Amino acid sequence: MADMNVPTAGATDQTTIGRVRDTPPIRHRSFLSPGGWRSVIWVIPGLALVGVFVYFPLIQNVYLSFFDWSVFKPVPAFVGTANYEQMIDDAVFWRALFNNTAYAVVSLVFQVVGALVLAAVVEEFVRKRGRGILRAIYFIPSAISITVAGLLFYFIYQPETGLLNEALRQVGLGDWAQAWLGQESTAIWGIIIMSQWQSFGYTTLLYSVAMQRIPQELYDAADIDGIGPIRRIVQITTPLVREMTSLLVIITISGAFQVFNEVMVMTAGGPNNSSQVLGTWLYSSGFINNQFGYAAAIATVIFVITFALAMIQLGSARRRRVEW
Amino acid sequence: MKNMSGQRITKLVAGVAGAVLLLSGCSAQAGPDSSASVDLSKVDYSGTITMVNKFSDPSTSKYFPAMAKAFEELHPGVTVKVQQESDQGYKDKIKVLASSNSIPDIYFVWAGSYAKQYVDAGFALDITSQIGPGTEWNKTLAPSAVEAGVYDGKSYGIPLDLDAKFMVYNKKIFADNGIEVPTSFSQLLADCKTFKDKGITPINFGNKNGWPALHYVTQLNAYNVPAATLDKDYTATNGEFTDPGYVKALDQFKQLLTTCTKSPTAANGIDHNDDEVGFAAGKSAMMYLEWVEFGQLDGTQLATDGWDFFQLPAETDAAGSPTVLVGAPDEFLINPKSKNPALAVAFMKFVVSQENAAKMQTLMVGYPSPVIGSMTSDNSSPQSIKALDAVSKASGLAIWLDTVTPPAVASAYLSGGEALVSGTSTPEEVMQSVQKAAATSH
């Protein structure tokens, strides 16, 4: 056990409990080597499908973002970077970008940090039978369709008959009752909160699964060293679910920048475009305002943001990968 | 959060883009001939015609399948394929179909600039020879309904129904509180105050999707802005929206919100349909409803209490047209690239006929037909008969603001109306954003 890098008091780096991965060189078989061509044949259909349905539309989308075109202008007119310049002056675009960023930040807090704490607490303090029940309870909202959840919260937020305002009135906070989805200052936050309610159980479950894979010996060793439950969470559990954390950070951030359905169901971007996100503004620009070139430019920005964030996070995770 | 809808949209935009690019050459070489003549005396009653519409709601979805079946029985060599979508789903579907030159033979449009986009792009057949002035079909239809389908002096739209907006009121609540039907806008506000003082919600108003506010503004614009100015500003180009009547209309709407609704700034968070349920349950004295919504009031508390309606009253010094009524028919266009356009027109003539229009009253509950004489006291409610009379007496129909104006102007009005409701913009600020949108729309 002494060789297992048991956490010690004051340890802050994961290298105290695991090792920075010293990956042995992997021998790759070259496509040019004898028999290597056979692997190419197996990969071609998949590559073709991904190329046609993922990469070709992406490249074409970037190309079309330099044109002014719509359903009613079948011959696109090249406009250079005009669509991107329009974006700079478009207050709704910046509002949407802010809303997506707020969505990402709040989602990170609830769906990554909050879910990690909740899963750790459940795994650490709750008996085995109770854990299953709690996991099921947390997971149920994730099993509800986002459209149904959106409608459910629309009724909860309803200003006159909604559950939230009625609850506030019942506890003497009637002055706080308001049109949560009907006011520019609160609409997007109402949607974001609904999304956290819907998704945190799913990420909590993923964390629980990751925590169950941590070797029990580490916790046993910590017990022998007299380390308490909070420090076990901080110094054993949290570092050893780092890969899951990295995955959830990517999923959460990219999901926050691709959010669409809940906004369309609950506010359709209103009132006065206050709850627009990039996805809904893209949709409005293309399918309502007939500016498909501008919509393509917004789509390109969404792709660049999510791709860049994913690359940064993946790179960071790879450098700090641990194993035991 | 787990939905990848953003990716779907990215690909959808790119997909539409690809279709347009791939087919643009075809369009240029063999563009639709929107002036191709149709002769209904020589219709080839064989083959298949296709239709897409927005009537998938259970209360309206039976009509077109029934019409298709009846037409097929009448003409054994014909197959009519009907696709029905939801209101929102239709808006997406028809644009994707248009972008790939896959528009069906017959398709739905909202009257106004929305329809004109399709006309201007060559996606609509000129059917003046069939439904234009002096034709046999024309004489069977309400003039205002046919007129709504005329673009650049030619007839393209086939009206399916009639619609108009009225202030519906609860007769019992009015009688119990000694209120008479108001004859001016000021009187309406005074009545609202009386109701509010007695703890009664005067008007239910839900504006979750933005358009309910624009229905008020459409009517108030017609009252406060001279008709010629409206015509000029509402067209796709040259809209200025500088007439002071526009600000006055928004001012009046704001007064109405403040005086007549329960929580003026909360309306953006309430769905129109939810409020209609409340109104039908007797929770308020009035609600601004479309004619096509009358059928939904059957069997409710309101029906027990008794209800009637009046046109939203104009102010006595209105500079516009106090006899214009907000409303517009739903229309269908014929694809000029249809393999058998005459058969498509023949089918629509069959649908919008005296015999079948009468069936609308049962198969599309509450939908009034534009066919003259199709609505009788035997098949329609007294209120529908009265509405028909009101529409026939109106000096014109003011088409919904969100479909009569170009998309950019409509969007500016929609978001401006919401801002006015939530109290974050003044009428002047809303009109500035509308003017800016009009200047950039083309």
Features:
heterodimer, A: 324 residues, 4 strands, 65% helix, flat, disordered N terminus, B: 442 residues, alpha/beta, five-stranded mixed sheet, four-stranded mixed sheet
What does this structure look like?
Chain A has 13 helices and four strands. Chain A is mainly α and 324 residues long. In chain A, the strands form two sheets. Chain A has a two-stranded antiparallel ribbon. Chain A has a two-stranded antiparallel sheet with strand order 2-3. Chain B has 442 residues and is of the alpha/beta class. In chain B, helix 9 (185-197) packs parallel to helix 12 (244-260) and helix 10 packs across helix 12. In chain B, the strands form four sheets. Chain B has a five-stranded mixed β-sheet with strand order 2-1-3-12-6, with helices on both faces. Chain B has a four-stranded mixed β-sheet with strand order 8-9-7-10. Classes of the chains: A mainly alpha (324), B alpha/beta (442). Chains A and B meet through helix 1, strand 3, helix 5, helix 7 and helix 10 of A and helix 1, helix 3, helix 4 and helix 19 of B.
Order of helices and strands of chain A: EHEEHHHHHHHHHHHHE
* Class by SSE composition of chain B: alpha/beta
Count of DSSP-assigned helices of chain A: 13
Q: How far is it from the N-terminal to the C-terminal residue of chain A, by CA?
A: 13 Å
**Helix proportion of residues of chain A, in percent?**
55-70%
Oligomer: heterodimer
- Percent in strands of chain A: under 5%
Instruction: Write down the Rg of chain B.
Output: 22 Å
Shape of chain B: globular
Strand tally of chain B is 13
SSE blueprint:
The complex is a heterodimer of chains A (324) and B (442).
Chain A: E1 19-20, H1 36-64, E2 67-70, E3 73-78, H2 82-88, H3 91-125, H4 128-139, H5 146-157, H6 163-170, H7 187-212, H8 216-224, H9 229-240, H10 242-257, H11 261-266, H12 278-288, H13 292-319, E4 322-323
Antiparallel strand pairs in A: 1-4, 2-3
Helix pairs in contact in A: 1-13, 2-13, 3-7, 3-9, 3-10, 3-12, 4-7, 5-7, 10-13, 12-13
Chain B: H1 5-29, E1 47-53, H2 63-74, E2 78-84, H3 87-99, E3 106-110, H4 113-120, H5 128-131, H6 136-139, H7 143-147, E4 150-151, E5 154-155, E6 158-159, E7 165-170, H8 171-176, H9 185-197, E8 201-204, H10 211-224, H11 227-234, H12 244-260, H13 272-280, E9 284-290, H14 301-305, E10 307-310, E11 324-326, E12 330-334, H15 341-351, H16 354-363, H17 382-393, E13 396-398, H18 401-404, H19 407-422, H20 427-440
Parallel strand pairs in B: 1-2, 1-3, 8-9, 11-13
Antiparallel strand pairs in B: 3-12, 4-5, 6-12, 7-9, 7-10
